[in-house]
Amino acid sequence: MPISMLHCLQYNSFKGLYQVVAVKRLDTTGVQGEKEFLVEVLMLSLLRHSNLVNMIGYCAEGDQRLLVYEYMALGSLESHLHDVSPDEEPLDWNTRMMIACGAAKGLNYLHHEAKPSVIYRDLKSSNILLDEGFHPKLSDFGLAKFGPTGEQSYVATRVMGTQGYCAPEYATSGKLTIRSDIYSFGVVLLELITGRRAYDDNGGPEKHLVEWARPMFRDKRSFPRLVDPRLKGNYPGSYLSNTIELAAMCLREEPHQRPSAGHIVEALEFLSSKQYTPKVSNTVNSAGMESVESPKETSVILPQESERERAVAEAKLWGETWRQRRQSEQSSPEGSK
Known about the structure:
single chain, alpha+beta, Phosphorylase Kinase, domain 1, Transferase(Phosphotransferase), domain 1, 2 domains, 4-stranded antiparallel beta sheet, two-stranded antiparallel sheet, 10 helices, 10 strands, 13% strand
């Protein structure tokens, strides 16, 4: 649906102040445009969360269809990943993990806290908007659907969405579930890791991000090849495998094998808490992973042996936790859907 965005000042009579807002003008030519406008107004009137964009108001007078949102000062995640000029600094690793965690929290709210549950259906980097401090918020709910009710395990609907983000089972059957959103989130997480577009017409045989990355999921020695080269090695090698494995879980072909949004939030809260602090010099071994002398992501300096023991313990805990959750999910009614 064609849209145009503009920014303007709104007078807040309660505070006696002007505030900058974003106004989205929708082209409602045809039935689909009108439907998406109504869906977005309905969804944003019902939903409230710190990781969802806030709708301030709307206009549906004559042929005008306007949505008024809070102004998101830093624009979209897409622009910060894919439209960065050579003289600009790319998003650092810590910021990328913080954005991923916030987006996952918004998705978890839609899936498990909103009543009724909501399937987003259009999760992509251009729909993740960034406020001051790179605080992420999901936006554009024109394609959203309420989740299945009663005995139903899916919502049957016409296939909509953006190339590169659409879950394979939804693309082929039109059967939409919350696990379809998880696949799309996996694509966004992979964008954050790699700095590549989900789909690039100019990418030749590598135009599909997931198809390019999937063979490398099988070999941890290939993981450094997945990382955005603009980071120049400034990422925590000891937690890179956890992050890539999480993306791979979200992108599993079988929907019921993908983690829930809640489990993704828990994993990303853990990963985003491991702040990477680069040092003056890096030492990289032949496989591209950090050596013992390379930068550590912990903010507390510990003796080398203690640091190694703690890393081993955390890795074991990570693996045990995910195994238990996968077994629990597969034995639960939801896991069998």
